[in-house]
Fold Oxidized purine nucleoside triphosphate hydrolase.
Amino acid sequence: MNSMDAKPPGIIDEVKMVHGGGSGDWFPAEEIRKYTNVFLIQGDRLLLGYKKRGLGIHKYNGFGGKVEPNESTLDAAQRELQEEAGIIAPLEHAGTLLFVVPGSKWAHIDIFRAEEYSGTIAESDEMRPEWFNKGEIPFDNMWDTDRYWLPLLLANRPFSGRADYEKKGEDFILKKWWFGINPNTVSQANQCI
Ligand SMILES: CNc1ncnc2c1ncn2[C@@H]1O[C@H](COP(=O)(O)OP(=O)(O)OP(=O)(O)O)[C@@H](O)[C@H]1O
């Protein structure tokens, strides 16, 4: 077995590797901070937001943020979608990403998908929403590891992964990554791997 096949520390879901790379050891454990991230899909289009401030500034991403104390993850995801894109939507859990940077709390990000919504999509102080065709997702202007797991979300394959980055000035440099899917949910596997 290749050493990258083994699940990295922090991944508890029953998943098998579909993407992995980088070198060195996984960074050591820190306290965990919870985040959410929501992607709206309508037919061939995906709604992303251009982040205007804070973590991930100038990148496209789903809509999300920190889970507040005494708030469920789902409530936080719905609140952030409303605050940042102006809409409400029934959410389905799509995957989990552990984002690790030495010296910072680990970010445990619960990622959700939605296929319908109500309200009017609106720009907020934090995000400028923009539709993209599924074939024209701006991966070069997103977090480096989005290219590995976003296709899994689009194909409706529950995934779990970890991405270790090092912070150099304002930049985050990808060091090592691992993404897996549950081998028992093979319904649309050919669409994504
Ligand atoms: C590889 N690393 C990553 N890959 C993909 N997405 C990532 C990410 N690391 C963080 N994210 C997302 O970026 C947003 C940050 O949210 P962030 O602005 O810090 O939170 P919040 O809206 O609570 O901010 P305020 O404290 O109100 O400014 C939030 O959606 C979170 O899920």
Remarks:
- Residues 166 and 173 are 5 Å apart (CA to CA).
- Residues 35-37, 54-56, 61, 64-66, 80, 99, 107, 109, 143, 145-146, 163 surround N6-Methyladenosine 5'-triphosphate (CB under 6 Å).
- The chain has one domain: 10-191.
